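Replying to the earlier thread about multi-chain prediction with a worked example.

Input:
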Amino acid sequence: MNHRLKVHLIAMAIISCGFLITGCERTPLPAIPAEDVQKIESAVPAQATATPQQPRKLLVFTRTEGYKHASIPYIATALKIMGERTGAFDVVISDAMSSFKPRSLRSFDAVVFVNTTKLAFEDPALRQSLMDFVKGGKGVAGIHAATDNFYDWPEAAAMMGGLFDGHPWHSRGTWAVKLEEPDHPVIAAFGGEGFTINDEIYRIKAPYSRVRVRLLMSLDLTDEATAQAEGGQSADADLPVSWVRSFGLGRVFYTGLGHNEHLTWNPAVLQHYLDGIQFVLGDLPAETAPSVSLEDVMSRLAAYDYGDSRLALTDLTEITRTAYGSPEALEPIEKRLLDFLQSGATLAARQYVCRRLSIIGTAAAVPTLAAMLTDPSTSNMARYALERIPGKAVDAALLEALPMVGGNEKVGVINTLGQRRNSASVAPLSRLILNSNPTVAASAVAALGHIAGPEAADALAAAIDGSTGKLRLLVLDAYLRCADGFAGQGDPTRANAIYRQLYASDEVGPIRLAALRGLVQTEAGAAEEIILEALSRDEPDLASVAIGLVHDLPRTENIDALVQQLPTLSVAGQVQLLTALAHRGDPARLEAVVAATGSVDAEVRLAAIKALGPLGDRSTLDLLTRVAADDRGAESDAARESLYRLTDRRTDKTILAGIPEGEPKIRIELIRSIDRRRIKGTTKLLFKTATDADPAVRIEAIKVLKVTANVRDLPALIDLLIQAQGEAERRAAEQTVVAVARKIAQEDQQADAVMAALSRTDDLTVRGSLLQVLGEIGDPSALPVLRESLAGDNVEVQTAAVRALSAWPTTEPLPELLAIAETSEHPVQQVLALRGYVRLVGLENDRPDDETVELYRGAMTLAPNASEKKLVLAGLARLRAIEALELTAEYLEDADLQQEAEVAGARIGRSTYEDHPEQTRNVLEKLVQLTQNDQLRDRVQGFLDDRD
Amino acid sequence: MVNKQLKINRHTFLRRAAAATVGAAAMPYIIPSSALGMAGSVAPSNRIVMGAVGFGMQGPGNLKNFMIEPDVQVVAICDIDLNHLSETKALVDEHYVNRDCDTYHDFRKLFARDDIDAVSLAIPDHWHAISAIAAAQAGKDIFAEKPLSHSLVEGRAMCDAVKRYGRVWQTGSWQRSLNNFRFGAELVLNGRIGKLHTVEVGLPSGHNDFAGTKDQKHLAPVPKELDYDMWLGPAPYAPYSPARVHKNWRWHLDYGGGQLLDWIGHHGDIAHWGMGVQYSGPYEIEGYGDYPEDGLWNAATRFRLTAKYANDVTMIIAGGHDDIRMGTKWIGDEGWVWVDRGDRIEAGPEGLLKVRFGPDETHLYRSPGHFRNFLDCVKSRATTIAPCEVAHRSATPGHLGQIAMLLGRKIRFNPGTEEIVDDPTATRMLGSTMRSPWHI
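Result:
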């Protein structure tokens, strides 16, 4: 708000006419008052700090795609005057993206982003161009909002050095700035001393990092006002104000100073701008090495302990990340980290360093890390790195350590050997299978299972007999893993031998189940025999897994004998086999599935009916239709689904042939399937069926016509409506007419046929019906007809017209509905109109929310009883205006409406809080106090607490 | 084929089902039909006996969803927080009006019980692989939470174990069991939006303070009800802070994967469904995220990933980016579909929402309800709507995206071998080392 106001004031104060600019892109900026120009003139430095090595051209870029700072024309003017006076550079001011086209950009030596906001650089060619420009050795300067860009272009955000993260230090305050680097030429203007300044200062977030930029100035939190700025206290990292960095071969300078225009008549700030710009132009030499070196980070890290600030860790991560992929850059880092591990640093710090080494470590790290394996306090962390460093040196070191370590450390080393899957580890690990420490033994076994391969398999096979209890299970698990490995890697024979051995054993269930699965998969052609044999055992678990295997059996496997067994299986078995057959989609099994639909067991029948969807064909149509029509609950639903899914298209012809005669409930199922099966060319048949003697059949046909009929059929459909007998049929016909009328592409012609019919009939019921249809179609050309009907004498026709207007799809009939709600003598019409009114108010529209609230308020006063008022509250709940919240609040104590008002209030409050915190809080607190709904109370209270 | 009388010492529901009808016949599985109800009143002997582990957040809700099914009997629960354990025991005992529910501290002891058919797991991500693999080895069918795993390597090991032991597995990616998500995916698979080219997956941003512990990131004494060392389990050692554990562990990458991994198993999972890549994955991924520089929680608060899939399909996964709407949006050359929670579905052209699919078109799996679907499959041995392998593939762009963001560069991936291509540094980040003695 504050910002916007300022922009207006400046706009009013503008005298007119931009200043002259030269160059390829010109953008006239709003002019600034002459007295301000004069103040700038008097503050601009008299001469360049460094002599330009050649004539320099500076692109002053001012484009805003977000907030527009009023200081932009001031800063641009200052830079222009500065260039002219000092001769340090020529200025071109632009806000056109085309300035970044390579041909244009090439003519500049540097770009300064002056309070640009939300720049997206969507054109990849322009992104490339700017990157080439900087990385190729040119300069970029950023003033204040230059960090409020590039949110979705991380590389450019990194180039600028950071991103905007709020501004707790607002523009009205005076804040203290300290010099991080008093002697740096780019901040020489401040004379080596910190200062206070009235400006808005940003909090800056990543990609800002001291390991990437050289920080020049930051906020001074020893100053009380600065430290206590609202929202600034939680800042636990750097609060940078200005920095420089190198980027590729180029240079970048950023200063956060530049929100308030008066800074452009502050000589020190202008000098700072000039020095920064001369630096990026390449004329003023300045140090850009990052503020924090690896050495700095390591010394901070040495004291790091759990619970401390993580900044040193973040910095180390950043340094290693920048070096990823470059062995030359990584080598000194690794060396430093290894030295660190041998220093007296805390365990917390050493653990973190080990985790960095897990990503960048090489063989060079092995001796240091291996030495840490024996110490319980460092063994785990050493493994974090060792486990992931490639190369045989690691395995050798781990194996060497293996006999030297005990207990938990030994277990860790074993686990790491397992993860590394080096076959050289098999022999030493095998010797540990029967170790007296059960955890050591268990780990060794698991490690062998990971490594797998022939040697591991042999060792595990040899260990089975000697192991008992839990260990035996683990040995068998690892042995199975070896078998799975053989099966997957081209040695199914060896795999099969292990599966056979285990399946034939008397090991516990899970082991034999797994073996059974492996057996079926590695023994082509024998699946059926194996499964049948499994079924013959007294083991339901085994049997169920055996049947489960049918799911994924190749079609080439013969399962005739198995399917023949279907009726003899247990219920569970039948359900499982039917489900598996359906999944396998083998139509040759149809006969058995059909037979199962006659099972005495409901579960079996249901599974069989479901299986008929994927497996069935034309021959199962009668069966499915019969089950669907027989009102058998879940079975009927399943039968319908299967009927709609039969892929055999010849079924369609059979369906159509069955519609003209037969049992009505069967015919209804067949008619219904026309839509779901999307059968074409059925309209004629459906029209004929819509005049059938059976009312339910007629209704079903009329319903399906809704989908299949087209606009040419509309008169015939209206005839059906006119002839409709009974309420249900009439309602079905109405809906079909509406749906088909809406298929007319020209919206103002959708009602024509209905209006024509209306003019031909005097039958009151039919007229009422046609009016209702007009309302639902919502073609505006029908409105006069409805208004006419309202004015007529016949109450029934009037009521039908009210109903029609209430169903209208746009807000157009609002005045009529309000008038009826206010004045009608007929309570039915009044209520109908009011409900319609509330409905229409809630339709999507461009009306401001506060006006909508007024409409609802009117409806509230008219509403005769609670149910209409509830409708109003439901409508209010969709609004986001404070007025809506306040109207809702009036009903928080109304016993009949309390619940609806609470729900609406809670919902509206969420969106009004930001702009109206106090009013919203008042209402929500009242809500919390009054509500009986515990869940809602907690939710609203939580919402309020979060905003305390 | 060796056919030999075997020792039977497990008593699962199927065994009880058979025994209840015929007693010990020579070939009890091949028997006359008998009653094994899938609904309605179910005799105790025909119920699926369940145990549940973990009640810090999703656990109690999942447990209630199972207990209301008539064919389930929950007999045992496990947690390493005594408060969670006693609260949950009260919940179960109240439901069954008895005091029979057994409590465990170590899930391995619960898994060792022969009478338990299936387990429901709702514990932090860093525990997923160890617990799930142990359950599979013990022959339990498993319902477990998303994201499937804490790392790609662990996810693969879980899938292998579940397959090895022939277990029925359901992941808590419940959106699959709702009509709007399925219908949206069907529209895409049936070509109703033309050729699919872009999928936008919008996720939440920031760190949700689920436990109300955002201000308790300092070190603190371990509360006496919590076995903190077991809670840490395979994760690297770090001292206790309230904000590290219950409900908020997800915001620390040692235990979870932030919003990205929390939600990849929902909207990312649905995206894969419609893309028809349930058993595949991206071949390339890049992105960037805001990782907090300081403070206890280190998971990305805002992120954006671009993943490339076969057939020129690009998936954008973003949290905290206004242009990517929360939910899943598939965009083709002739239209688009968007789905989100709250039964929401939108499409362009709008008429797509009224489409019905004919018998020749793709009809996706219809689940009667996410928990019901699991139980039905325990009985029928059919594949569930969110099996292990599918959940693993759904989590894959999340895991790879995390690596790409932490690494700061594009990575390439072979979905067939599940290996990162030509990037040894990224490859090292596919798994993490477990603190001793834990291993998978």
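Chain A touches chain B through 107 residues (CB under 8 Å).

Feel free to reuse this layout for your own posts.
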